[in-house]
């Protein structure tokens, strides 16, 4: 069941979390238990898993969910949040099966393999931010800036990107400060209120968690 915006803020408040983790259920190298072991050893209180999902799933999400809950019982000092990373589609929808939404705590919005059209990109994001189907679930925009860096950092593109960041914040969506890819431009991240940022590793292995 999705956690509310205020609940998510509370979870992040003491900064003792590992956010944006991928496991061997998709393209990660480590299993769920490995991440729990690392968090326990390093003194982190919370793990926020954000596994890739698609409309056509390549793994059993129930198995993924149950394995997280099993490990959470075994590691009493570490709390787990079950999240999913879904890509935005050109029509302003998300590439995720409807039956997964009730099972997750948070939904992360991402841009993957999007057509090189800044106007289509902007319209898709504006639509998904306010769509009542997705709004109760979307909590974080992960690796923002990937698309804008790919198509070119013109003043026009940057202005559109900044306006989307502002819209996301206005709609209660956190912005990821992605440690792995550093995709937010300096002036944009500097102007983004710190209370709306969530530090993310985009980790596909335990070894990538030492960046923070």
CATH architecture annotation name: Alpha-Beta Barrel
CATH homologous superfamily placement: Metal-dependent hydrolases
Task: Give the N-to-C terminal Cα separation.
Answer: 29 Å
Task: Please give the domain count.
Answer: 1
**CATH fold-level name:** TIM Barrel
In DSSP terms, counting alpha (H) and pi (I) runs of 4 or more, how many helices?
7
Radius of gyration over C-alpha positions, nearest whole angstrom: 16 Å
Please indicate the percent range of residues in DSSP E strands (runs of 2 or more): 15-25%
What does this structure look like?
The chain has helices at 5-12, 32-42, 61-74, 118-130, 146-151, 155-170, 186-191, and strands at residues 17-21, 46-52, 79-87, 106-110, 138-141, 174-178, 197-200. The protein has 212 residues and is an alpha/beta fold. It is globular. It has a 7-stranded parallel β-sheet, sandwiched between helices. The longest helix has 16 residues, at 155-170. The chain has 7 helices and 7 strands; from the N terminus they run αβαβαββαβααβαβ.
């Amino acid at each position: 069941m999705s956690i509310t915006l205020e609940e998510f803020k509370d979870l992040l408040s003491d900064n003792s979390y590992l956010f944006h983790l991928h496991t061997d259920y998709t393209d990660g190298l480590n299993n769920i238990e490995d991440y729990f072991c690392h968090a326990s050893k390093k003194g982190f209180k919370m793990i926020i898993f954000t596994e890739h999902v698609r409309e056509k799933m390549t793994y059993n999400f129930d198995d993924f969910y149950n394995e997280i809950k099993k490990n959470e019982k075994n590691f009493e000092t570490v709390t787990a949040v079950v999240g999913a990373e879904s890509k935005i589609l050109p029509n302003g929808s998300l590439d995720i099966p409807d039956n997964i939404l009730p099972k997750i705590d948070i939904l992360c919005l991402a841009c993957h393999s999007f057509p090189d059209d800044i106007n289509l990109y902007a319209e898709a994001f504006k639509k998904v931010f306010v769509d009542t189907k997705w709004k109760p679930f979307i909590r974080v925009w992960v690796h923002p800036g990937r698309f804008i860096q790919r198509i070119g950092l013109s003043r026009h593109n940057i202005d559109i990107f900044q306006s989307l960041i502002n819209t996301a914040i206005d709609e209660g969506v956190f912005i990821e400060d992605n440690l792995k890819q550093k995709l937010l431009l300096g002036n944009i991240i500097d102007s983004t209120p710190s209370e709306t940022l969530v530090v993310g590793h985009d980790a596909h292995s335990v070894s990538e968690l030492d960046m923070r």
